[in-house]
Design a protein that fits this description.
By secondary structure, this protein is an alpha/beta fold. Helix content is 39%, strand content 11%. The protein has one domain: Rossmann fold.
């Protein structure tokens, strides 16, 4: 299976029509080079894994919702809409952010649902040298790239981020707890690096 890398973002589930089109364009433009990979590249498996949901009628509502969010994040990136809605600055959110350890920026951080990454930026500025951001929205990852330019970016559902076991020190996932992420915490984080923060 080969995941395309577009604008330095690893694409794992191009759910929105906009991102599906970008991925198909990537494979079309690079078809000759990809075929030179021989057995390392399986076009039919890649097609099946990346694009099978586009044929699934039950996911149409989800595709339409992601198309909406891709448009919203793209508009933010292009300055058409306000950059930050300001929800970081509400008192309950601020109290949670203040509980983050001061030395967090020294750790390997995975931010699930990075959005435009105001959560970590408001606390640490752009000083996060070991940052990995993941979001279902491609343009949310693009926005975060503008804040943490040296980070690793993965467009993926929170439950299916393709990372090695024990490769992350800390996971920050604010506003995505409606998802079941307990396995993500235990699979990706280094045991004993930091105790799971309550809050």
């Amino acid at each position: 299976m080969l995941y395309p890398v577009i604008d330095n973002i690893i694409i794992t589930e191009p759910i929105s029509p906009q991102l599906e089109e970008k991925c198909r364009d990537f494979f079309n433009r690079n078809s000759d080079s990809l075929m030179q990979l021989g057995e390392k590249y399986n076009p039919s498996l890649t097609e099946q894994v990346l694009f099978s949901f586009s044929q699934d009628e039950s996911l149409q509502v989800h595709r339409e919702e992601m198309a909406y969010w891709e448009m919203k994040f793209k508009n933010r990136m292009e300055g058409i809409e306000h950059e930050n809605p300001g929800w970081n600055r509400t008192l309950p959110r601020w109290k949670l952010l203040k509980k983050l350890p001061s030395d967090l920026n020294d750790k390997i951080i995975l931010e699930i649902g990075c959005g435009s990454s105001h959560t970590l930026y408001d606390i640490y500025g752009s000083n996060l040298p070991n940052y990995a951001g993941s979001d279902l929205s491609f343009y949310a990852c693009r926005l975060t790239q503008q804040v943490f330019s040296n980070g690793l970016y993965i467009q993926a559902p929170a439950e299916k981020i393709p990372l090695k076991k024990n490769s992350i020190d800390v996971i920050v996932a604010y506003g995505v707890f409606h998802l079941r992420l307990s396995n993500v915490y235990t699979d990706y984080t280094n045991p004993g690096c930091l105790e799971q923060q309550a809050g």
